[in-house]
Amino acid sequence: MKKNICIIGAGISGMSIAYHLAIQGVKDILVIDKGYFTNGATGRCGAGVRQQWQTKMNCLLAKMSMEFFEKANEILDYDDDVELKQEGYLILATTIEEENQFKKNVILQNRLGIPSKVVNRKEALEIVPHLNPDSFLSATFCKTDGHLNPFKMTEAFYKACLRLGVEFHFFEEVKDLEVNDHKVNKVITDKEIYDVSVCINAAGGYASEIGKMADIDIPVFSENHEILATEPVEPMQGPMVMSFSKNIYCQQVPHGAFLIGRSNFNALPSHDMSSSWEFLDEMSQTVCDIMPKIGKLNIVRQWGGSYNMSKDHQPIISKSIELDNFYMACGFSGHGFMLAPMTGLLISELVLGQKPVLNIETLSIKRFLNDKKINIEKSVV
Amino acid sequence: MEKKDIIMCRCEDVTLEDLHKKIDEGYETFEDLKRLLRIGMGPCQANTCGILIQKELAKYLDKKIENVKTHHSRPMIQGISLEKINKEIKK
C-alpha cells in the first residue's frame, strides 16, 4: 500500500506533527500506533505545562507551545475543553546553589518574554499557604504556567487530524523499516507493508528501537518514572509545586485530584512501567515534609510511565544525518507533552523544506557528534 | 429509563448516554473510554463499573463479552493516606 507520510507513534507529538502537516495541505498521512489512544507516555504524564527552564531553547519551545495551548480549543475547533488551568508553577529553591541558579534562569526567561519572577519565602507562602516554611529558602513563580488535560489535548489534535483526512491505525505495530539508497522506502507492520515518501519517528519510549530498524543510532533511552493520584478534594492549591532538589512535582488538577510524581535516580534504562512500594515510601516522606496537609489525602492510584531521555535532557527535533526522508521527534526527557505544538510545527517545517520559525540547530541529532556542543538542561524532575 | 439517567460509573458520574456518545465517536476499548470519560479512575478503580461497561461494550458493538478487555488494574487496592505510609516508615 502506498502512503505519502508515515508517522510512527500516535501520542501527542505524532498527533501534532500530523496536524501541522495536514493543515499545510499535505495529503495522504498515516499515523501508526501499536496500542490504544494515548497508551504511551502522553497518557501517563503529569499534566503540567511550564515555561520555566534553564536552557534558552527549552524556554522558547515551551513559551511558543503555551501560546498555542491558550487558543487550542479555538484553533483545533474542539467540541470539548482541553482544561488549561494557568495558575502557575511555584518552583522551590532549597539550596543556595539553586537560589543562585534560579535567579539566572529568571533573567533568561524574562529576556525571552516569560513572566516568571523570584519570590521570597513569605510571598511563596501567600501563593501556596500549606507549604512547610522550613522546607525551602525561596522560589520562582510563573503565573502563566499550569495544567493541561493530556487526554483531551490529544483528542483535540486527533479530531482535527481526522477532519483534515489523516488516517490512524491503532493496534498496529511497526516491525521493520526497509532502507534503500539512503531512504526509508517501506514501513513494515504486523498487518501491512507501506511504500512511503517520508517516515517520521515519534515513537516516544521506543524511538531508539525504531531508529535501529532504519540502521541509525539515536542516542536516547527510556526510563520508568512513577506518579500517583489522590482522591479528589475541593480546590486548595492553584499552582504546581515543584522542587528539583527534593525531587517532587505536585499539582491539583481541575478534577480535584492531586497528581504527585518524582524521579527514581536508580532506574536503569528499560521499558519497565511498573509501580513500586519504594516510590510510595519516598514520596510520602517528601510530601509530608514539604506539604503536610496534602499528606492527609488518600492515594487512589499509582502508575509508571516512560521518559525518553536524551543526554542533555533536551529534545531531538531533527532530520536524520544518514537518511534523506527520515525525521525524528524524541528524547523529550519527560516533557514532550508540554512542547508538542512546537514539535509538530518544527517537524512539519523540516519535512516541507521551509525555514523553521526557530533556529533549531541545537535540537539537531548532529549535536551529539561533538559532546562539547551540548548544553545540559538541569531543570528536570 | 432514559440513557442520560442511567449511571454506569458512580465514582465519576458517567452515564450510559456519555458512554454511547464516545463509542459512536469511534473509541471502542475500555482503556480509550477510561482516559476520556474517567471511568475506572475513581476510588473503586472499576471494581463496580468494570463489568457493567464491559457488558455494555459487548452489547453495543455486538461482540462476545470475552473479546472485550477490561482495564489494566493498578495499585492501590484500597486508598491509603500519604501520612499513614510516612508514619509506618518512621516506626
Condensed summary:
Chain A has helices at 12-22, 56-70, 72-75, 96-111, 121-127, 150-163, 207-213, 277-290, 336-351; strands at residues 2-8, 29-32, 48-49, 89-93, 116-119, 138-142, 146-147, 167-169, 174-180, 183-189, 193-201, 220-230, 240-243, 248-252, 258-262, 298-310, 316-319, 326-330. By secondary structure, chain A is of the alpha/beta class. Chain B has a two-stranded antiparallel sheet with strand order 1-2.
What order do the helices and strands come in, and which of them pair?
The complex is a heterodimer of chains A (381) and B (91).
Chain A: E1 2-8, H1 12-22, E2 29-32, E3 48-49, H2 56-70, H3 72-75, E4 89-93, H4 96-111, E5 116-119, H5 121-127, E6 138-142, E7 146-147, H6 150-163, E8 167-169, E9 174-180, E10 183-189, E11 193-201, H7 207-213, E12 220-230, E13 240-243, E14 248-252, E15 258-262, H8 277-290, E16 298-310, E17 316-319, E18 326-330, H9 336-351
Helix pairs in contact in A: 1-6, 1-9, 2-9
Chain B: E1 7-9, E2 14-15, H1 16-24, H2 30-37, H3 49-61, E3 80-81, H4 82-90
Antiparallel strand pairs in B: 1-2
